[in-house]
Write a structure and sequence with these properties.
This protein is of the alpha+beta class and 396 residues long. It has three domains: 102 residues, no CATH class; 152 residues, D-amino Acid Aminotransferase, Chain A, domain 1, CATH 3.30.470; 103 residues, no CATH class. 34% of the residues lie in helices and 19% in strands. It is built from 13 helices and 14 strands. The chain is globular. The protein starts with a helix and ends with a helix.
Length: 396
């Protein structure tokens, strides 16, 4: 019952799949729904209009002027655009509601994906189930495209976790070397959006920890082990950091190819593949690199060297220099390690049960790219931003 109440609470605090004053219509619903679902969505909408606005501060990222009410009122209150999302559109030149209304709020990505798959066999559930299980996906990935990995499971009968490798409790061969070298990464076995992805390294008799996609809180606990931790010990510490007891996927930290400029952490290539029908050919729809510059700033750069604008504070000289190195190299031609990510992503999509679109995350390593994960439910914002950039580049 507790789980049901929790799911209901999360649902009520999510935006309904409705759009208002868009495309010349008063309102529009994404997809069909039974009456009970529409009534639930009515409660969602009331919560969004009456409660949510007081929780979301009206501000842009640091260093930018406030957005005008003529844009934020229809976008962030009447509809479900996040203020930071609107600021990114603003940085790309979108100045009016009529322009912004052409694009779907990122918060409705789930509804868009569900509606798009409604006519597919079993609504793509077999593929989505496989993609949600990171270990199962890696297990069916060709060996040349995957790093060694292990699933760490908390033991149910005691508070001491244990680690499972191919059904047996043991320490994998790669563990100690990886921990003392580039490190070991732990992430939720069924996570998303960069939640709980943490890199651990044993250096100078201490365990270093680094969140790769989100920041750790200032008061995050540190491990007290006097020796490099075993998988069980590291899982227990990861649970304390993430305040959870869920299984984790452990793998060596992966570095990108030296054919690309240096970056810390390693650059990730996101590739969105698509197919028009269950039997249709797979194609690469979009691809970009997520490049850490420094001080927590990440640049989104297309495979041909076009970067999205930065919606926050102006880049520092060091950040701008790093961005210039990446864009110049990609504009002169994407290296083989990047092109290989696109080819591998298309091949992986072919191996899945029928599904329309998948977003893949790769480390552009040499001699072959290495798969991090695949996502059946992915955000709309960055793909739409790149689509607008590409459309603008094609205009005379």
């Amino acid at each position: 019952m507790t789980g049901l109440v929790e799911r209901l609470f999360i649902t009520l605090h999510s935006p309904p799949p409705w759009r208002w004053l868009s495309g010349g219509l008063l309102w529009q619903r994404l997809g069909a729904a039974p009456l009970w679902r529409v009534l639930l969505e009515l409660l969602q909408q009331l919560q969004w209009w009456l409660i949510r606005p007081w929780r979301w501060p009206r501000r842009l990222p640091k260093g930018r002027p406030a957005l005008p009410w003529q844009l934020t009122l229809p976008a962030c209150w009447l509809n479900s655009y996040r203020p930071a999302e609107v600021s990114w559109w603003w940085a790309l030149g979108v100045r009016s509601w009529s322009q912004l209304a052409q694009y779907t709020p990122d918060s409705l990505a789930g509804a868009v994906n569900t509606e798009r798959r409604r006519q597919w066999p079993d609504q793509c559930r077999p593929a989505l189930k496989l993609l949600a299980d990171k270990a199962a996906l890696l297990a069916c990935t060709p060996e040349l495209w995957r790093a060694p990995f292990s699933v760490l499971n908390p033991q149910q009968s005691t508070h001491q976790p244990h680690q499972i490798v191919n059904g047996h409790t043991e320490i994998p061969n790669w563990w100690w070397e990886a921990l003392r070298a580039e490190g070991v990464v732990l992430k939720p076995q069924r996570g998303h959006a960069g939640r709980g992805v943490i890199r651990f390294r044993w250096t100078r008799s201490a365990l270093e920890q680094q969140a790769l996609f989100r920041r750790l809180p200032a008061n995050a606990p540190h491990a007290a082990e006097a020796e490099p931790p075993t998988p069980a010990q590291l899982l227990a510490h990861w649970h304390r950091l993430c305040q959870s007891d869920e299984p984790a996927l452990a793998a060596p930290y992966l570095c990108h190819s030296t054919d690309l400029p240096a970056a810390d952490p390693a650059v990730v290539v996101r590739v969105i593949t698509s197919r028009p029908s269950p039997e249709g050919p797979v194609a690469v729809r979009q691809a970009w690199l997520e490049v850490p510059l420094c001080e927590g700033v990440v640049a989104f750069i297309s495979a041909d060297g076009v970067s999205l604008p930065n919606p926050g504070e102006a880049l520092t000289a060091a950040q701008q220099d790093a961005l210039d190195r990446w864009t110049q190299q990609l504009q002169s031609g994407a290296p083989l390690c990047v092109r290989a990510c696109l080819e591998a992503a298309a091949a992986m999509h072919q191996r899945l049960p029928a599904i329309d679109q998948v977003a893949w995350d790769w480390i552009p390593a040499s001699p072959e790219p290495l798969l991090l994960e695949g996502n059946g439910g992915f955000g709309l914002l960055v793909p739409q931003l790149f689509a607008r950039l590409n459309a603008a580049a094609l205009q005379p």
